[in-house]
Amino acid sequence: MSRVLAIADLHEPVCRKHYLQFCKDLYEEWSCNKVIFIGDVVDWSAISFHQNNPEAPGPKDEYGLAKKSIQKWYKAFPKATILVGNHDCRPQRLAESVNIPAGFIKEYPDLWGTPNWKWEFSTVIDNVFYCHGHGKGGGLTPAFNLAKCMGMSVVMGHFHSVAGIMYQASTVSRVFGMNLGWGGDDAAYAFAYAKEQAKRGLLGAGIILEGKQAFYEIMPISKGERYYDQRQVKRQKS
Q1: Strand pairing partners for 215?
Q2: Residue 231 located in a structural domain
Q3: Which of 17, 29, 161, 165 is surrounded by the most beta carbons within 10 Å?
Q4: How many CB atoms lie under 10 A from the CB of residue 16?
Q5: Does residue 147 lie in a domain region?
Q6: pLDDT tens string 7-28
Q7: For residue 165, what is the enclosing H or E element?
């Protein structure tokens, strides 16, 4: 019986404090036996196609910080499937833009020191389709929209401010769409561009049992809750 832990976008090295422990706890509490990282495990702010943040580290330093963080996840979950997100493939996309062949770029396991991680763009487990979600539409229920289109259940990341599950049933089948939110830290330099947005990212992860039942676990981060980190977010004065 598959008991899948679906981990949201990490955006290392700017993942939210305690998100790793939260995922480790879920793995044990739900007796999971499979792990899916839904994509954007790294941020690559330094080689973005958008304007760089002057507070951000350069490419070499960001790579060192991200790899150190990824190794903590690899130690916690040595066997996992990682779905490639739009941030993960920024080096490849940048190389293509200047006519550098793919063979000149390190493969993901070599780049991050994760020989036992399986890197894919999508995967299917128990008739549930898992993907990062870039290029898959949007709206208030992007995973559910894709599930209706494909006729099968879908688990998706990418959309940070959308999280939760929606079901649809017919006389012969039942499908769901699960959006995972994310695991990043919206106070980090990499997300300064979004500091005035009204919607914030939702922190959580998913549990999928035999492809039939899905549960979304919100990460409890409020004061007095299990993963409260007592951080201070700087807000612009009016």
Answers
A1: 207
A2: no
A3: 165
A4: 24
A5: no
A6: 999 999 999 999 999 999 999 9
A7: strand 163-169
